[in-house]
Amino acid sequence: MGKHLVLAGGGHAHMVTMANIDKICDLGHSVTVIGPSDYHYYSGMGPGMLGSGYEPDDIRFAIKKNVENQGGTFIRDSIVKVDPVSRELHLKSGKTVNYDVVSFNTGSHVDIPVIEGSRERIYAVKPIERLYEARSEIEQLAGKQAVTVAVIGGGPAGAETAGNVAQLLSKAAFSSRVVLFAGRKLLSKFPCGMQKKSRKILENSGVSIQEAGHLTAIRDNHLSFDSGHEEDADFMILATGVHPSSFFREAGLQTGPDGGLLVNRFLQCPDYPDIFGGGDCIYYKEQPLDKVGVYAVRENPVLFHNIKAFLQNEALQPFDPGGDYLLIFNLGNEKGVLRKNWFQISGGLAFRIKDWIDRKFMEKFHN
Ligand SMILES: Cc1cc2nc3c(=O)[nH]c(=O)nc-3n(C[C@H](O)[C@H](O)[C@H](O)COP(=O)(O)OP(=O)(O)OC[C@H]3O[C@@H](n4cnc5c(N)ncnc54)[C@H](O)[C@@H]3O)c2cc1C
C-alpha cells in the first residue's frame, strides 16, 4: 500500500528529492511538502541580493509550483511541533499533518539577542527573503539622509552582509556608513590569510570593522556590547550565529548539543527510523558538520535514495560527508575570497568563480 511522505521544509538538502516527486508518486506513494513560502531562497546568493547584485528571481526556487507540477501537495505553513509516536506534525495555522515517513530540512534560525523597544529596522540574515526588504528600506532612507548600518557578527555571514551593504550604499545619494561589529576578531575561525584578505577588501569598500566584543542588548536604535562599548545605528542586521528549531528537543527526539535532530550515517533518526533529515537542522552523529550549504547539497542524493528505499523496504546507503570543501565569500563590489585546502585567492576572480558556481546551481534545479 502507498505511504505518505512529508518533506518538512523545502531547503537545500531536499532539492533532489523535490525534483523526483513524480517518481515517488509513480511508485504509489503520496508526497506533501510543507514550507512557509512558495519559494526557497538560495542562501549562498542572499548577501549578493542584499547588495543589489541579484534580484529575488535570480536566487529562488519556485517550490510550490515544482511540487504541484509533479503531483505532490504543497502546504504553505510552518511546523511548530512534532509527535514522533503518533506520527503527526503540528503546524502554525493549527492544522495537523500525519505521515508515514518524514524528512526534515527546516534549516536554522539566527540567535537573536535581547531587544527592547522598537524592532523596526532590525533584520537578521535569515530568512534570506527578508534581506530584500532590508535592501529596499536601506535604499529608501539612504536616498533621503546619511545612514549608519550596523552589521553584527564576525563570521562569514556578517562579513558578506557588511561588504554587500557597502556596495548598496556606494550608490546612495548621501554619504553613509557601514560598521561591522565582528565580535572579538573578524573571521576568528578561519586561517590568518583569509582574515587579512577579507579585512582588506571590506576596508577598501569603506566598511568600518569594530572588534568591540559581543552584542548584549539592543534598545531602539542603540547597541550595547559586553566590552562596555555602545553605538547607535539606523539599521541593524544580525548575523550572530544560527541554531536549529527547538521542536526536535521538545518532541523528546535525540538531539546534538545545538538542538539539531540527531541522525545516523543513513541520515536517519536512530529511535524513529521513519524520520530522516538533512541540512542545518540535523546533528550528524558520526562527526559534527559545519552549518554550510555545501553539506546540505552533498546530502541530497543519499537522502533521496534513503527516503525512497525506506518507502520501498529496500537497503539504505550511508552518507559520506567528503573532504574539505571550496569556500568563497562574496564581500561585495564583485570581490571575494576563496579557499580550498591550502589554496587561497582574493579579488575579482574569486567573486567570478562563486558567481559562476552559484548561477550553475540555480540553473540545475530550475530545470
Ligand atoms: C547570509 C548567509 C550566507 C551564506 N552563504 C553560504 C555560502 O555561500 N555557501 C555555503 O555553503 N553556505 C552558506 N551559508 C550557510 C547556508 O545558509 C546554510 O548552511 C544552508 O542554508 C543550509 O541549508 P538548509 O536547507 O538546511 O537550510 P535553509 O536554507 O535555511 O532552508 C530551510 C528551509 O526550510 C524552511 N523552513 C524553516 N523553518 C520551517 C518550519 N518550521 N517549517 C517548515 N519549513 C521551514 C525555510 O523556509 C527554508 O526554505 C550562508 C548562510 C547565511 C546566513
CATH superfamily (homologous) name of the largest domain:
FAD/NAD(P)-binding domain
> Would you tell me which CATH topology of the largest domain applies?
FAD/NAD(P)-binding domain
Secondary-structure class: alpha/beta
Count of discrete structural domains: 2
The CATH class assignment of the largest domain is Alpha Beta
Q: Largest beta sheet: what is the strand line-up?
A: 5-2-1-9-22
> For this entry, what is the oligomeric state of its chains?
single chain
Terminal-residue CA separation: 31 Å
Number of helices: 11
Helix content: 25-40%
- The number of strands is 26
The assigned CATH architecture of the largest domain is: 3-Layer(bba) Sandwich
* Unreliable sequence segments: none
Question: What is the CA-atom radius of gyration, in angstroms?
Answer: 21 Å
Q: Give average pLDDT, whole number.
A: 96
Small-molecule components bound:
flavin-adenine dinucleotide
The biggest beta sheet, please? 5 strands, parallel
Please state roughly what percent of the residues sit in beta strands, choosing from under 5%, 5-15%, 15-25%, 25-35%, 35-45% or over 45%: 25-35%
Shape, per Cα inertia axes: globular
